[in-house]
Write a structure and sequence with these properties.
Number of domains: 1
Pfam families: Cupin_3 (PF05899)
Protein name: (S)-ureidoglycine aminohydrolase cupin domain-containing protein
CATH class: Mainly Beta
Strand content: over 45%
Distance between the termini: 25 Å
Order of helices and strands: EEEEEEEEE
Radius of gyration: 14 Å
Number of helices: 0
InterPro entries: RmlC-like_jellyroll, RmlC_Cupin_sf, UGlyAH_Cupin_dom
CATH architecture: Sandwich
CATH superfamily: Jelly Rolls
CATH topology: Jelly Rolls
Largest sheet: 9 strands, antiparallel
Helix content: under 10%
Structural class: mainly beta
């Protein structure tokens, strides 16, 4: 087994999902997640994609995101709305609460640490 792992979605079957009904604000967003790495230590890495819609988010985990395509607006509770698009990178820290709104189908690379 090699210690090098390519982030290649052709090697993984995507998981399908959607926001929990009690978190949905508008639209009918659908998720696809290609979880490339999953460690017992609570580390995850891969690709996530969502179609347009808006939902509430609450983070207990730490997540690094790099937007590959699309446009989304992330609004922190009591804070400013931030538009993210292809090429943008950011971290959502534990305790982040707010809304994620996908304006154009958005795909991101992620690394999550529980």
């Amino acid at each position: 087994m090699t210690a090098f792992l390519s982030v290649d979605i052709k090697t993984v079957e995507p998981e399908s999902g959607a926001p929990a009904p009690d978190r949905l604000i508008s639209g009918d967003p659908k998720f696809r997640t290609w979880n490339i790495e999953e460690r017992d230590s609570g580390l995850y890495a891969g690709i996530w994609e969502s179609t347009p819609g808006k939902w509430r988010i609450v983070y207990d985990e730490w997540e690094f995101c790099h937007i590959l395509s699309g446009v989304s607006v992330i609004t922190e509770e009591g804070g400013a709305a931030r538009t993210v698009k292809a090429g943008d990178s950011f971290v959502l820290r534990p305790g982040f609460k707010g809304n994620w709104e996908v304006l154009e189908t958005t795909r991101k690379e992620y690394v999550i640490k529980l």
